[in-house]
Amino acid sequence: MYVVLTVSWVIFSGSTGYISLAPAAFFGVGIYSSALFGNELPLGIVIGIGGIASACLALLVGALTLRLKGIYFAIFTFGLVMLIAHLLLFWEINITGTRGRFVVLVDYNTIYYVMLAIMVVTLLTSFLIRRSKFGSALQSIGENEEAAVHIGINVTMFKVIAFAISAVFTGAVGAIMATRWTYIDPFIAFNPLYSFMPVLMAIFGGMGRLYGPVIGAAIFSYLEEFLITKFPYYYMLIFGIILLVAILYLPDGLVGLVQKLRRRITGGKYANTGR
Amino acid sequence: MLEVKNLSTFYGKIQALWDVSFSIKESEIMALVGANGAGKTTLLNTISGLLRPTSGSISFLGKRIDGLSPHTIVEMGVSHIPEGRKLFADMSVRENLEMGAYANRAWKNKGETLEQVYRLFPALKERESQLARTLSGGEQQMLAMGRGLMSRPKLCIIDEPSNGLAPKLVLEVFQIIKSLRDQGITILLVEQNVRHTLETADCACILENGRLALEGTCSALLEMEHVKKAYLGL
Fold it and tell me: Where in chain B is the domain with CATH 3.40.50.300?
């Protein structure tokens, strides 16, 4: 699950340099589509709805806010998560008269294979974008947005589209994850943790290569499980310390470390010219 | 080729351009000179679509382009080489150039254009795989110009190419601009270096406080008392 969240986050934020804290919003939209339609519609369509609803939200929010730069964009997207959570809570309490909802159960095997399929599609999309003209355009926006405008890139449109693509996968994952949890409420669905984790995992893994976020997410998820079972009371503390060390000593993430080692082996002659 | 009529542009609440009109003929170098804050860059940004004029019109090859978005204007054949280079610092020289050909019109023939640009700037060919940030100031300016040419422009807008360059390199830059005109590219050149500019260009406009003060052929302008006093220090 975290692999998809992280890789899809990197599709947008890794290249353009806009730090988005919106994944939790898209994730939550996915979860709620599952809760709303899970009873009536087949699973495939529910996941589709989750993805598309998230993408629509991303298009709307993107068109409104992608003019914001740097930290302002990050804060706005974070605010969005809270806003939706509270609005939904208000709606549930005052209009529907409930707090949470039950989600139809799906057996674990199905969840596993659906998740695997979403992951493969996400990786494939990310890979194709990286190699495409569209991907280089996103990269150039991240490098120097003003220059990207000058060479004739429709900056606003590209940013919004990339934002929407990353939201599709996040929403789809939300829709399938909901079936595992059986009960949800606005604060379970729109948990800000799902905004922060992808960012941390991407930084931990390194964003320079496709495998960076994948490794980062995989190691992080295992680490989390491991620490929870071994040190149930201190796991967050240990987690935090590992993260701090990683950010201080591995500015380019694990990918950076791997490349540094490789360079040392092949000889340090070109150490500063490549990436 | 380019016609600007009664153009006024605001920066927020401040009016930066007042009723500016001029036109550029095909295959000539038009220079735009003026002191700091005279509105030169504002005028260029308005032409390339980064700013919207509040009144007046701009037409390129007979079509109105004011109000169009920057990428559409690039697609039509206007390339704006910005002041201060604005390179993609962490991309290689080659990647920078290839990105310059982003417009659909130029993307197909980017290999061929790349060859032409390398012929014009052999230094870039040598540094092909180096990151843009590691280039010297002069090479960075070459790269900025090369990238601008990659879109195969009909009109090339060059803002302050000599900024921060050694005198010898400045001469080289002016030579290259001349050779571009001889290849049939129309050029709108903004410069602080008035003497060199007036000697290189065919016609010139002089902006003062956002208004067009003088317009004419360079040889005529060089003779005028006002120009001599205010811009050449004679």
Answer: 2-77+154-232
Please tell me the pTM assigned to this model: 0.85
State residue A254's pLDDT score: 78
Question: Ramachandran region of residue B86, left (φ > 0), alpha (ψ -120 to 50) or beta?
Answer: left
Q: Which pLDDT band holds residue A271 (cuts at 50, 70, 90)?
A: very low
CB–CB contacts below 8 A, A to B? 67
Count of structural domains within chain A: 1
Nearest-by-CA chain B residue for A155: B71
Angle at A81 between CA A80 and CA A85, to 5 degrees: 115
Q: Which of the residues B51, B87, B88, B97 would you substitute to probe the A interface, choosing the one with the greatest number of A C-beta atoms within 10 Å?
A: B88
CB A106 within 8 Å of CB A179 = yes
Do A133 and B102 make contact, defined as CB atoms within 8 angstroms? yes
Domain containing residue A161: 2-203
How many other β-carbons are positioned within 10 Å of the β-carbon of residue A56? 15
Q: Is A250 a domain residue?
A: no
How far is the C-alpha of A254 from the C-alpha of A223, rounded, in Å?
Answer: 15
What tens digit of pLDDT does each residue of B190-201 get? 988 888 888 889
Is A224 within a domain? no
Per DSSP bridges, beta strands B78-81 and B63-64 are unpaired
In a domain, A194, yes or no: yes
Beta strand B211-217 with B203-208 is antiparallel
| pLDDT single digits (tens) A124-144 | 999 999 889 999 999 999 889
pLDDT band at A268 (very low <50, low <70, confident <90, very high): very low
At B24 the three-state DSSP class reads: strand
Distance CA B69, CA B67 (A): 6
> Does residue A226 fall inside a structural domain?
no
Superfamily of domain B2-77+154-232: P-loop containing nucleotide triphosphate hydrolases (3.40.50.300)
A54's CB contacts (< 8 A; 6+ apart) are A25, A26, A29, A30, A167, A168, A170, A171, A172, A174
Please answer yes or no on whether B89 and A137 come within 8 Å at the CB atom. no
